[in-house]
């Protein structure tokens, strides 16, 4: 079982790494960010959009609010780079606020949702769903990091153990 401090640490790590990757991506042109680089979502921009969409879905489940519009995998929440950056920063603040309000009991129950991917109801322990939420982010940020590096951008440090106190 995970605890609130773990979730809060991963929420801070999520924001730190998104700031890191978005800063590196900002050094590229829009065409470079949208270039098909052979990843599952093809481009840096599309993968960052997927991350935002996925986070929106998971936060709707975890907070018990309305699901965002769109269908996996082709949802393009933000076609415009500046809007994508603003929406990402807002989502990171939302995740931090949510994590900051958790207590042990919030992670002890079961999360139930209707999965559009499986076309069925899913029941999982909340702690497992939260672990998946952060793992999903890390997985796709790794893809973005690889695409950025291949494009000549230079993302900063990514190791959790080196997260600075300012990010904490």
Give structural notes.
The chain is mostly helical and 168 residues long. It has one domain: Four Helix Bundle (Hemerythrin (Met), subunit A). 55% of the residues lie in helices and 7% in strands. The model has no long low-confidence stretch (mean pLDDT 92).
List the helices and strands and how they pair.
Layout: H1 4-25, H2 30-34, H3 44-63, H4 81-100, E1 110-115, E2 120-125, H5 126-150
Antiparallel strand pairs: 1-2
Strand content: 5-15%
What is the count of distinct domains? 1
What strand line-up does the widest sheet have? 1-2
> So, the CATH homologous superfamily?
dinb family like domain
Largest sheet: 2 strands, antiparallel
| Total number of helices | 5
Overall geometric form: globular
Along the chain, the helix and strand elements come as HHHHEEH
CATH class: Mainly Alpha
The number of distinct β-strands equals 2
- Portion of residues within helices: 40-55%
Observed structural traits:
168 residues; mainly alpha; Four Helix Bundle (Hemerythrin (Met), subunit A); 5 helices; 7% strand; globular
């Amino acid at each position: 079982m995970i605890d609130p401090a773990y979730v809060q640490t991963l929420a801070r790590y999520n924001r730190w790494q998104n700031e890191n990757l978005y800063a590196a991506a900002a050094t590229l042109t829009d065409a470079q960010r949208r270039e098909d680089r052979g990843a599952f979502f093809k481009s840096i921009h599309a993968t960052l959009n997927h991350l935002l969409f996925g986070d929106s879905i998971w936060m709707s489940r975890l907070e018990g609010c309305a699901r965002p519009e769109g269908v996996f995998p082709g949802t393009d929440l933000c076609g415009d780079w500046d809007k994508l950056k603003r929406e990402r920063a807002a989502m990171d603040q939302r995740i931090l606020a949510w994590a900051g309000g958790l207590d042990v009991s919030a992670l002890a129950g079961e999360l139930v949702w209707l999965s559009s991917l499986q076309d069925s109801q899913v029941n999982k322990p909340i702690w497992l769903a939260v672990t998946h939420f952060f793992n999903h982010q890390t997985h796709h940020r790794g893809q973005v990091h690889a695409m950025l590096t291949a494009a000549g951008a230079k993302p900063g440090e990514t190791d959790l153990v080196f997260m600075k106190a300012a990010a904490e």
